[in-house]
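If you are new to this repository, start here. Below is one unmodified record pulled from the training split, so you can see the exact layout before writing a loader.
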Amino acid sequence: MKDVLHIYCRVSSGIQEKGNSLEEQEQSGIRLSKQLGFNHMTWNEESQTSKLDTLHNRPQMLGLLDEIDKGKVKHLYVISLDRLSRNESTSFNIKYKLIHNKVTLHTSTGQYDFDNYMDRFIYNTLSNSSVLENEMRRDKSVRGKIRGMKKGHWKGGDINFGYKLVDKKLQIIKDESVHIKKLFKMYDNGKSTKDLQDYLLSEGLKTRRNNSVFPLQSITNILKNTIYIGYKDMKITDFKYRFECPPIVDESLFHKVQMRMKDILERKNQINRTQHEYLLRDYLYCNECKNGMSGLWREKLNQFNYFCSNRTRVWKGYKNGKEKCTMRRSLSIKQTDFLVWETICDTLENSSTLKESFKSTQLDTKFKSDKEVKNEVRRVRHNIQRISREINDLNENILLIEKQKWTNKMDEKTYKEVKSSIIDNIQELESQRDSKELTITDTLIQKKWLNWIDRYSKKIDKYRDTKDKELMKEVFGEVLQKIFVDWDVDTKEHILDIRLKLPLFNDKIEYIDKSNKSLGYKLKDGKKSKELRYKKTNNVKRFIESKKKI
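And here is the target side for that same chain:
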């Protein structure tokens, strides 16, 4: 059976360098495979920029490395080393795979046998040159952007309302700038962002990106944007630079607006509070008008409620284009948060889908028995011994080149370069050895998870007992989609229609044959929605304690 030459092809996006097109790379590899008497297989990555030169963004390389790990690849061809990677960490990972699996690397200029330290030295030198070239190109691009910004060229993405781009420079649009000035003056005179939104709507002004009504957050961003006083601090990779352009708003007015915004936030004690207290605000919707619900936290009055914001707008005289909402009942924040969190925790605890996912991803399911664990440990220890032998060989090579230097068979410059490369290789191998030692430790630890159900249950118990709002929000974000709120007049109960992103409610395992469970099973989806009913209580603390006792 003929050996196979695996041909890896890749070009930078939009750059089809002469002699390095995808087609030419493949044809070059095919010609070499014929010379060697090999069959060939092509891995075509197509266009990828060096900016995204990570394994995550290269599915063909990931597939190729997987085949290398399985021992199915012994000969690899790239037209030049920079096709593998111009990223230092990515290059190191690929090189480790090639060395570890004894893959011979072929290029248009020759081949590399990684068992030979001189081949490794040449490979390292050329690979590092590619990395250096890429870093220099990146640095040149950054410096080019900065030079352009010094000339007043815009490099900041979307053009802000009030400006247009002419010859790469921002110029004021007179008609739009009038409205920008108006917004700042209105806010300084005591108007709210909602008033500013109504003004823009009355003027028929819409956003540039999606031609929609200006959101309140966009208006806030306009009021905070220093571009309107003639500058914007920008970061280009590790460089910070202040871009300057023609101002629209007087600087003193701008700072007065910033002070008022800060005062309002401090007065209402709203700074960073919303994200910590209103856990469900982004998920709750009034079933009557389908409008999002808001949170109201008045600690002194002992009022902590979710309510339909559309109804509030009606009370204040704003209808927002909607009919009057009849949802008069607010929800207790603490009670609602607790009940929804408990419901989600119950779902996580009982979901067969999530249990199977936990088993397959969080735990290492490739070891089915103690014997397999022992075999894996033995295999890794053999690798450690091999690495140790390589380190000893390299140390002997250092003695050899030192002898060549002493006998004047090697000049000083070559001696330093070769010794430096050998030391780098030793350090690299020592790092690999340390990693292998950790692998053994991790493998032995995995032997202890005999009862994964117990571990899963402990994970859920940790969720139930947590007071970490950020963790709760993270869990909600993973599974929760929307909650529609309604009120049952007859029973005096709130109705929560909880909707998940996945069908996890009452999902279960179904055996292919109940009489013969060894044939395996399949997962049966549950439902995405569930109805939760409860009555609002004034003594939330007692309510929560009674629920926890059950």
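Two things worth knowing about this chain: Residues 16 and 22 are 8 Å apart (CA to CA). Confidence is low (pLDDT under 50) at residues 14-19, 270-276, 313-322.
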